[in-house]
Design a protein that fits this description.
Length: 468
Protein backbone atom coordinates (compact mmCIF):
# COMPACT_ATOMS: atom_id res chain seq x y z
CA UNK A 1 0.00 0.00 0.00
CA UNK A 2 1.26 3.43 -0.90
CA UNK A 3 1.00 6.26 1.59
CA UNK A 4 -0.97 9.26 0.42
CA UNK A 5 1.18 12.27 -0.35
CA UNK A 6 -0.02 15.76 0.50
CA UNK A 7 -0.23 18.02 -2.54
CA UNK A 8 0.02 21.79 -2.28
CA UNK A 9 -3.68 22.19 -3.05
CA UNK A 10 -4.67 19.57 -0.44
CA UNK A 11 -2.52 21.35 2.12
CA UNK A 12 -4.08 24.70 1.26
CA UNK A 13 -7.57 23.19 1.61
CA UNK A 14 -6.62 21.64 4.95
CA UNK A 15 -5.26 24.95 6.23
CA UNK A 16 -8.43 26.71 5.04
CA UNK A 17 -10.55 24.18 6.96
CA UNK A 18 -8.35 24.55 10.05
CA UNK A 19 -7.27 20.89 9.95
CA UNK A 20 -3.57 21.63 9.56
CA UNK A 21 -3.32 24.18 12.36
CA UNK A 22 -1.21 22.93 15.24
CA UNK A 23 -3.32 22.91 18.42
CA UNK A 24 -1.39 24.87 21.02
CA UNK A 25 -0.06 23.09 24.10
CA UNK A 26 -1.04 25.14 27.13
CA UNK A 27 1.80 23.59 29.13
CA UNK A 28 4.09 20.58 28.87
CA UNK A 29 2.07 17.36 28.96
CA UNK A 30 -1.20 19.12 28.38
CA UNK A 31 -2.27 17.02 25.42
CA UNK A 32 -5.96 17.68 26.03
CA UNK A 33 -6.39 20.04 23.09
CA UNK A 34 -5.18 17.35 20.71
CA UNK A 35 -7.89 14.77 21.27
CA UNK A 36 -11.52 14.25 20.61
CA UNK A 37 -13.31 14.25 23.98
CA UNK A 38 -14.04 10.52 23.56
CA UNK A 39 -10.42 9.52 22.97
CA UNK A 40 -9.16 7.21 25.70
CA UNK A 41 -5.50 7.55 26.59
CA UNK A 42 -3.00 5.79 28.82
CA UNK A 43 -3.10 6.78 32.48
CA UNK A 44 0.39 8.21 32.37
CA UNK A 45 1.96 11.46 31.32
CA UNK A 46 2.42 10.36 27.76
CA UNK A 47 -1.36 10.17 27.18
CA UNK A 48 -1.04 7.76 24.27
CA UNK A 49 -4.40 7.11 22.61
CA UNK A 50 -5.51 3.53 23.37
CA UNK A 51 -8.37 1.32 22.28
CA UNK A 52 -11.44 1.65 24.56
CA UNK A 53 -11.28 -0.55 27.66
CA UNK A 54 -7.58 -1.37 27.28
CA UNK A 55 -6.26 -2.99 30.45
CA UNK A 56 -9.24 -1.99 32.60
CA UNK A 57 -9.90 -4.50 35.42
CA UNK A 58 -13.42 -5.92 35.88
CA UNK A 59 -13.71 -4.28 39.28
CA UNK A 60 -17.03 -3.81 41.09
CA UNK A 61 -16.32 -2.66 44.66
CA UNK A 62 -18.75 -0.97 47.03
CA UNK A 63 -17.21 0.70 50.10
CA UNK A 64 -19.74 1.38 52.86
CA UNK A 65 -19.55 3.47 56.05
CA UNK A 66 -16.57 5.43 54.75
CA UNK A 67 -15.28 8.46 56.60
CA UNK A 68 -14.19 10.32 53.46
CA UNK A 69 -11.30 12.78 53.24
CA UNK A 70 -11.55 13.54 49.53
CA UNK A 71 -8.66 16.01 49.29
CA UNK A 72 -10.72 18.81 47.73
CA UNK A 73 -11.07 20.90 50.89
CA UNK A 74 -14.62 19.71 51.56
CA UNK A 75 -15.02 18.70 55.25
CA UNK A 76 -14.71 15.01 56.10
CA UNK A 77 -18.09 13.29 55.67
CA UNK A 78 -19.75 9.88 55.79
CA UNK A 79 -20.30 8.31 52.35
CA UNK A 80 -20.59 5.13 50.31
CA UNK A 81 -18.26 4.79 47.32
CA UNK A 82 -18.60 2.72 44.18
CA UNK A 83 -15.58 1.67 42.11
CA UNK A 84 -16.12 0.10 38.72
CA UNK A 85 -13.35 -0.72 36.28
CA UNK A 86 -10.40 1.53 37.07
CA UNK A 87 -12.51 4.51 38.18
CA UNK A 88 -14.37 5.88 41.13
CA UNK A 89 -17.86 6.16 39.66
CA UNK A 90 -19.98 7.27 42.61
CA UNK A 91 -19.62 9.04 45.94
CA UNK A 92 -23.03 9.01 47.61
CA UNK A 93 -25.01 9.28 50.82
CA UNK A 94 -24.26 6.45 53.25
CA UNK A 95 -26.70 3.54 53.50
CA UNK A 96 -27.05 2.92 49.78
CA UNK A 97 -27.53 -0.50 48.22
CA UNK A 98 -24.48 -2.18 46.66
CA UNK A 99 -24.94 -3.04 43.00
CA UNK A 100 -25.43 -6.64 41.94
CA UNK A 101 -22.28 -8.74 42.31
CA UNK A 102 -20.21 -6.03 44.01
CA UNK A 103 -17.56 -6.85 46.61
CA UNK A 104 -18.66 -4.96 49.72
CA UNK A 105 -15.95 -3.45 51.95
CA UNK A 106 -17.10 -2.09 55.29
CA UNK A 107 -14.85 0.87 56.19
CA UNK A 108 -16.59 1.49 59.54
CA UNK A 109 -14.47 3.60 61.86
CA UNK A 110 -11.81 4.15 59.24
CA UNK A 111 -10.87 6.92 56.80
CA UNK A 112 -10.96 6.61 53.03
CA UNK A 113 -8.66 9.07 51.27
CA UNK A 114 -6.76 9.54 47.99
CA UNK A 115 -3.63 7.41 47.68
CA UNK A 116 -0.38 9.11 48.66
CA UNK A 117 2.13 10.14 45.99
CA UNK A 118 5.92 10.06 46.41
CA UNK A 119 7.49 12.49 43.92
CA UNK A 120 11.09 11.39 44.48
CA UNK A 121 12.05 7.72 44.31
CA UNK A 122 14.85 5.62 42.84
CA UNK A 123 13.34 2.16 42.59
CA UNK A 124 16.47 0.48 41.26
CA UNK A 125 19.42 2.15 43.01
CA UNK A 126 22.07 -0.24 44.34
CA UNK A 127 21.96 -1.74 47.84
CA UNK A 128 25.06 0.18 48.91
CA UNK A 129 27.06 3.08 47.49
CA UNK A 130 30.82 2.99 47.55
CA UNK A 131 33.39 1.92 45.03
CA UNK A 132 33.77 -0.53 43.56
CA UNK A 133 30.08 -1.44 43.37
CA UNK A 134 29.60 -5.01 42.20
CA UNK A 135 28.89 -4.93 38.47
CA UNK A 136 26.08 -7.46 38.88
CA UNK A 137 24.32 -4.97 41.16
CA UNK A 138 24.44 -2.29 38.52
CA UNK A 139 23.08 -4.35 35.64
CA UNK A 140 19.57 -3.63 34.39
CA UNK A 141 18.66 -7.18 35.42
CA UNK A 142 19.70 -6.59 39.03
CA UNK A 143 17.99 -3.22 38.94
CA UNK A 144 14.66 -4.68 37.81
CA UNK A 145 14.72 -7.34 40.53
CA UNK A 146 15.52 -4.78 43.24
CA UNK A 147 12.71 -2.55 41.99
CA UNK A 148 10.18 -5.38 42.00
CA UNK A 149 11.04 -6.13 45.63
CA UNK A 150 10.80 -2.47 46.69
CA UNK A 151 7.36 -1.77 45.19
CA UNK A 152 5.54 -3.53 48.02
CA UNK A 153 7.06 -1.19 50.62
CA UNK A 154 5.58 1.81 48.85
CA UNK A 155 2.23 0.07 48.32
CA UNK A 156 1.96 -1.03 51.96
CA UNK A 157 2.67 2.58 53.01
CA UNK A 158 -0.41 3.78 51.12
CA UNK A 159 1.68 5.25 48.29
CA UNK A 160 -0.27 4.66 45.08
CA UNK A 161 1.97 6.65 42.70
CA UNK A 162 5.71 7.19 42.56
CA UNK A 163 7.67 9.55 40.37
CA UNK A 164 10.91 7.68 39.76
CA UNK A 165 13.53 10.36 39.11
CA UNK A 166 16.40 8.14 37.87
CA UNK A 167 16.83 4.40 37.68
CA UNK A 168 18.90 1.98 35.64
CA UNK A 169 18.36 1.64 31.90
CA UNK A 170 15.01 0.22 30.86
CA UNK A 171 14.27 -1.25 34.31
CA UNK A 172 11.84 1.47 35.53
CA UNK A 173 9.85 1.32 32.28
CA UNK A 174 9.50 -2.45 32.43
CA UNK A 175 8.49 -2.26 36.10
CA UNK A 176 5.92 0.37 35.15
CA UNK A 177 4.42 -1.91 32.48
CA UNK A 178 4.23 -4.93 34.78
CA UNK A 179 2.52 -2.90 37.50
CA UNK A 180 0.11 -1.26 35.04
CA UNK A 181 -0.92 -4.65 33.69
CA UNK A 182 -1.64 -5.91 37.21
CA UNK A 183 1.06 -8.60 37.09
CA UNK A 184 3.04 -7.09 40.00
CA UNK A 185 1.30 -5.29 42.89
CA UNK A 186 2.71 -1.81 43.29
CA UNK A 187 2.15 1.90 42.94
CA UNK A 188 1.62 3.57 39.59
CA UNK A 189 5.08 4.46 38.22
CA UNK A 190 5.97 7.69 36.42
CA UNK A 191 9.56 7.22 35.29
CA UNK A 192 12.26 9.63 34.16
CA UNK A 193 14.76 6.98 33.04
CA UNK A 194 18.42 7.94 33.26
CA UNK A 195 19.53 11.04 35.16
CA UNK A 196 21.18 13.50 32.76
CA UNK A 197 24.25 15.31 34.15
CA UNK A 198 27.37 17.10 32.99
CA UNK A 199 30.62 15.14 33.04
CA UNK A 200 31.54 14.50 36.68
CA UNK A 201 28.15 15.87 37.80
CA UNK A 202 25.93 14.74 40.64
CA UNK A 203 25.55 10.99 40.80
CA UNK A 204 28.53 10.10 38.63
CA UNK A 205 30.85 9.72 41.60
CA UNK A 206 28.88 6.78 43.01
CA UNK A 207 29.01 4.41 40.07
CA UNK A 208 31.64 1.96 38.91
CA UNK A 209 29.85 1.51 35.60
CA UNK A 210 30.25 3.76 32.64
CA UNK A 211 27.85 6.70 32.51
CA UNK A 212 28.92 7.58 28.97
CA UNK A 213 26.25 8.49 26.40
CA UNK A 214 24.61 5.41 24.99
CA UNK A 215 25.63 3.13 27.85
CA UNK A 216 22.32 1.49 28.61
CA UNK A 217 22.88 -0.21 31.97
CA UNK A 218 23.51 2.83 34.15
CA UNK A 219 21.11 5.08 36.06
CA UNK A 220 23.11 8.17 35.12
CA UNK A 221 24.07 9.52 31.69
CA UNK A 222 26.72 12.17 31.22
CA UNK A 223 26.39 14.73 28.45
CA UNK A 224 28.61 17.56 27.22
CA UNK A 225 27.36 20.44 25.15
CA UNK A 226 23.80 21.34 24.11
CA UNK A 227 23.62 18.70 21.36
CA UNK A 228 24.46 15.86 23.76
CA UNK A 229 21.93 17.19 26.32
CA UNK A 230 19.24 17.16 23.62
CA UNK A 231 20.29 13.67 22.56
CA UNK A 232 20.10 12.46 26.16
CA UNK A 233 16.54 13.81 26.47
CA UNK A 234 15.58 12.03 23.27
CA UNK A 235 17.17 8.78 24.42
CA UNK A 236 15.00 8.82 27.56
CA UNK A 237 11.97 9.76 25.47
CA UNK A 238 12.68 6.76 23.24
CA UNK A 239 12.77 4.50 26.30
CA UNK A 240 9.31 5.74 27.31
CA UNK A 241 10.06 8.54 29.78
CA UNK A 242 7.16 10.27 31.52
CA UNK A 243 9.37 13.18 32.48
CA UNK A 244 13.01 14.28 32.32
CA UNK A 245 15.40 14.60 35.27
CA UNK A 246 18.51 16.76 35.05
CA UNK A 247 21.22 17.42 37.62
CA UNK A 248 24.00 19.92 38.00
CA UNK A 249 26.54 20.56 36.79
CA UNK A 250 25.63 22.12 33.45
CA UNK A 251 26.03 25.41 31.68
CA UNK A 252 23.20 27.68 30.55
CA UNK A 253 23.27 26.45 26.94
CA UNK A 254 23.04 22.82 28.07
CA UNK A 255 20.09 23.26 30.44
CA UNK A 256 18.31 25.53 27.95
CA UNK A 257 18.70 22.89 25.24
CA UNK A 258 17.48 20.02 27.43
CA UNK A 259 14.43 21.93 28.69
CA UNK A 260 13.54 23.10 25.18
CA UNK A 261 13.84 19.59 23.78
CA UNK A 262 11.80 18.03 26.60
CA UNK A 263 9.03 20.60 26.41
CA UNK A 264 8.75 20.16 22.63
CA UNK A 265 8.29 16.44 23.29
CA UNK A 266 5.58 17.19 25.86
CA UNK A 267 7.68 16.16 28.86
CA UNK A 268 8.07 18.04 32.14
CA UNK A 269 11.54 18.61 33.54
CA UNK A 270 12.71 18.43 37.11
CA UNK A 271 16.21 19.38 38.24
CA UNK A 272 18.48 18.39 41.12
CA UNK A 273 20.66 21.46 41.57
CA UNK A 274 22.03 24.10 43.94
CA UNK A 275 23.00 27.77 44.01
CA UNK A 276 23.85 29.20 40.56
CA UNK A 277 22.72 25.99 38.85
CA UNK A 278 19.24 26.34 40.32
CA UNK A 279 19.14 29.88 38.97
CA UNK A 280 20.17 28.63 35.50
CA UNK A 281 17.48 25.92 35.65
CA UNK A 282 14.85 28.49 36.68
CA UNK A 283 15.94 30.79 33.84
CA UNK A 284 15.65 27.82 31.46
CA UNK A 285 12.01 27.35 32.54
CA UNK A 286 12.09 23.95 34.22
CA UNK A 287 8.95 22.70 35.94
CA UNK A 288 10.31 21.79 39.38
CA UNK A 289 13.44 21.80 41.53
CA UNK A 290 14.37 18.91 43.82
CA UNK A 291 15.89 19.13 47.32
CA UNK A 292 16.34 21.88 49.94
CA UNK A 293 19.71 23.02 48.56
CA UNK A 294 20.98 26.60 48.83
CA UNK A 295 19.64 29.22 46.42
CA UNK A 296 19.26 32.99 46.47
CA UNK A 297 16.17 34.89 47.59
CA UNK A 298 15.97 36.23 44.03
CA UNK A 299 15.81 32.67 42.68
CA UNK A 300 13.01 31.82 45.13
CA UNK A 301 11.05 34.87 43.98
CA UNK A 302 11.55 33.85 40.35
CA UNK A 303 10.38 30.30 41.08
CA UNK A 304 7.15 31.68 42.53
CA UNK A 305 6.69 34.09 39.61
CA UNK A 306 7.27 31.41 36.96
CA UNK A 307 5.18 28.75 38.73
CA UNK A 308 8.16 26.44 39.24
CA UNK A 309 7.44 23.94 42.01
CA UNK A 310 9.76 22.65 44.70
CA UNK A 311 10.04 19.08 45.96
CA UNK A 312 12.17 19.83 49.01
CA UNK A 313 12.83 16.24 50.19
CA UNK A 314 13.91 17.33 53.66
CA UNK A 315 14.05 13.78 54.94
CA UNK A 316 17.16 12.50 53.10
CA UNK A 317 19.08 15.61 54.19
CA UNK A 318 18.03 15.06 57.80
CA UNK A 319 19.41 11.55 57.33
CA UNK A 320 22.64 12.90 55.77
CA UNK A 321 23.01 15.49 58.55
CA UNK A 322 22.42 12.84 61.21
CA UNK A 323 25.50 11.10 59.81
CA UNK A 324 27.64 14.24 59.99
CA UNK A 325 26.78 15.95 56.69
CA UNK A 326 27.37 15.64 52.98
CA UNK A 327 30.98 14.54 52.98
CA UNK A 328 33.31 13.37 50.26
CA UNK A 329 31.03 14.11 47.33
CA UNK A 330 32.94 15.70 44.47
CA UNK A 331 29.77 17.19 43.02
CA UNK A 332 28.25 18.45 46.29
CA UNK A 333 30.88 20.67 47.86
CA UNK A 334 28.84 22.42 50.52
CA UNK A 335 27.09 21.76 53.81
CA UNK A 336 23.51 22.50 54.70
CA UNK A 337 22.16 22.41 58.24
CA UNK A 338 18.63 21.38 59.20
CA UNK A 339 18.00 24.98 60.30
CA UNK A 340 19.10 26.40 56.96
CA UNK A 341 17.01 24.02 54.87
CA UNK A 342 13.87 24.62 56.93
CA UNK A 343 14.45 28.36 56.63
CA UNK A 344 14.55 27.88 52.84
CA UNK A 345 11.34 25.80 53.01
CA UNK A 346 9.61 28.57 54.97
CA UNK A 347 10.90 31.18 52.52
CA UNK A 348 9.54 29.23 49.53
CA UNK A 349 6.18 28.68 51.24
CA UNK A 350 5.90 32.39 52.07
CA UNK A 351 6.80 33.32 48.48
CA UNK A 352 3.99 31.09 47.18
CA UNK A 353 6.14 28.33 45.64
CA UNK A 354 4.17 25.10 45.33
CA UNK A 355 5.74 22.45 47.59
CA UNK A 356 5.45 18.73 46.88
CA UNK A 357 6.23 15.65 48.93
CA UNK A 358 9.03 13.20 48.09
CA UNK A 359 11.22 10.94 50.20
CA UNK A 360 14.26 10.23 47.97
CA UNK A 361 15.07 7.04 49.85
CA UNK A 362 18.02 5.32 48.22
CA UNK A 363 20.04 2.16 48.94
CA UNK A 364 17.79 0.03 51.14
CA UNK A 365 15.98 3.05 52.56
CA UNK A 366 12.63 1.55 51.53
CA UNK A 367 12.97 -0.48 54.73
CA UNK A 368 12.29 2.81 56.56
CA UNK A 369 8.83 3.13 54.99
CA UNK A 370 6.26 4.25 56.00
CA UNK A 371 8.20 6.14 58.68
CA UNK A 372 10.24 8.24 56.21
CA UNK A 373 7.12 9.34 54.33
CA UNK A 374 5.39 10.31 57.59
CA UNK A 375 8.59 12.12 58.63
CA UNK A 376 8.46 14.23 55.46
CA UNK A 377 4.87 15.18 56.36
CA UNK A 378 6.07 16.06 59.88
CA UNK A 379 8.57 18.33 58.12
CA UNK A 380 5.66 20.00 56.29
CA UNK A 381 3.92 20.39 59.67
CA UNK A 382 7.10 22.14 60.85
CA UNK A 383 6.61 24.65 57.98
CA UNK A 384 3.15 25.44 59.36
CA UNK A 385 0.96 23.01 57.40
CA UNK A 386 -1.99 21.55 59.33
CA UNK A 387 -2.39 17.76 59.22
CA UNK A 388 -5.06 18.02 56.51
CA UNK A 389 -2.97 20.54 54.52
CA UNK A 390 -0.04 18.09 54.66
CA UNK A 391 -2.32 15.38 53.26
CA UNK A 392 -3.41 17.70 50.43
CA UNK A 393 0.27 18.36 49.62
CA UNK A 394 0.85 14.59 49.54
CA UNK A 395 -2.07 13.96 47.20
CA UNK A 396 -3.55 16.84 45.17
CA UNK A 397 -0.47 19.10 45.08
CA UNK A 398 1.75 16.16 44.16
CA UNK A 399 -0.70 15.22 41.38
CA UNK A 400 -0.53 18.82 40.10
CA UNK A 401 3.28 18.80 40.07
CA UNK A 402 3.14 15.51 38.17
CA UNK A 403 0.60 16.87 35.69
CA UNK A 404 -1.91 14.16 36.62
CA UNK A 405 -4.41 16.16 38.71
CA UNK A 406 -7.16 15.59 36.15
CA UNK A 407 -7.05 11.89 37.07
CA UNK A 408 -5.37 11.61 40.47
CA UNK A 409 -5.03 13.45 43.78
CA UNK A 410 -8.66 13.71 44.94
CA UNK A 411 -11.56 11.28 45.34
CA UNK A 412 -14.23 12.52 42.97
CA UNK A 413 -16.42 10.59 40.53
CA UNK A 414 -14.64 10.09 37.22
CA UNK A 415 -11.16 10.04 38.68
CA UNK A 416 -8.98 6.95 38.78
CA UNK A 417 -9.69 4.70 41.77
CA UNK A 418 -6.37 5.18 43.62
CA UNK A 419 -7.39 5.22 47.27
CA UNK A 420 -6.44 3.95 50.68
CA UNK A 421 -8.33 2.96 53.83
CA UNK A 422 -6.60 4.07 57.01
CA UNK A 423 -7.40 2.85 60.51
CA UNK A 424 -7.60 6.30 62.11
CA UNK A 425 -8.02 9.98 61.25
CA UNK A 426 -4.84 11.03 59.41
CA UNK A 427 -6.39 14.41 58.57
CA UNK A 428 -6.22 15.12 62.31
CA UNK A 429 -3.08 13.17 63.19
CA UNK A 430 -0.67 12.27 60.39
CA UNK A 431 0.84 9.50 62.57
CA UNK A 432 -2.32 7.52 61.71
CA UNK A 433 -0.91 7.18 58.17
CA UNK A 434 1.19 4.34 59.54
CA UNK A 435 -2.02 2.30 59.84
CA UNK A 436 -2.89 1.69 56.19
CA UNK A 437 -5.26 -1.29 55.89
CA UNK A 438 -6.31 -1.43 52.27
CA UNK A 439 -4.85 0.02 49.06
CA UNK A 440 -6.53 0.22 45.66
CA UNK A 441 -4.65 1.33 42.53
CA UNK A 442 -6.62 1.78 39.33
CA UNK A 443 -9.47 -0.31 40.73
CA UNK A 444 -7.18 -3.20 41.73
CA UNK A 445 -6.86 -4.11 45.40
CA UNK A 446 -3.10 -4.51 45.99
CA UNK A 447 -2.95 -4.36 49.81
CA UNK A 448 -5.31 -6.02 52.30
CA UNK A 449 -4.87 -5.97 56.08
CA UNK A 450 -1.74 -3.85 55.57
CA UNK A 451 0.10 -6.38 53.41
CA UNK A 452 0.62 -6.55 49.64
CA UNK A 453 -1.26 -9.42 48.03
CA UNK A 454 -0.50 -11.43 44.93
CA UNK A 455 -2.76 -10.56 41.99
CA UNK A 456 -5.57 -12.99 41.19
CA UNK A 457 -4.34 -16.10 39.39
CA UNK A 458 -5.23 -16.21 35.70
CA UNK A 459 -6.96 -19.50 34.81
CA UNK A 460 -7.01 -20.37 31.13
CA UNK A 461 -7.88 -23.64 29.44
CA UNK A 462 -4.96 -24.96 27.42
CA UNK A 463 -6.05 -25.33 23.78
CA UNK A 464 -3.95 -28.46 23.12
CA UNK A 465 -5.28 -30.93 25.70
CA UNK A 466 -7.38 -33.85 24.49
CA UNK A 467 -10.68 -34.91 26.08
CA UNK A 468 -10.48 -37.97 28.35
ZN1 LIG B 1 17.22 11.46 44.30
Amino acid sequence: MKFMMWTASMLAAAIASGAAADPPLAKPNDRSGLYDAKTQTTNDLRRLPVAPGTNVPKTNIFITNARLFDGTGVPVRAVDLLIQGDKLVRVGEPGGEPPEGAEVIDARGRTVMPGLIDLHTHLTYVHAFGLPAPLSEESQAGAAIRGAERLRYYAESGITSVRDVASHGMAPFLLKEEVASGAIPGPRIFAAGQLIVGEGGHGTEYYALSTAPGYAEAAVREASGPDEWRAAVRANFKSGADLIKLASHFNQEEVDAAVDEAHRLGLRVTVDSETIYTRMAVDAGVDSIEHPLPRSAETVTLMAKKGIASVPTFVPYQYINSGGGYNGSTSRRFTISDERMFALGAEMKAAGVKLGVGTDVTLDGHHYLPEVYVQELRNFRRLGYSASQALVAATLTNAEILGMDDRLGTLQPGKLADLIIVDGKPDQDIEDLKKVDLVIVGGRIIVRDGRAILPPRIEEKAPFTSAK
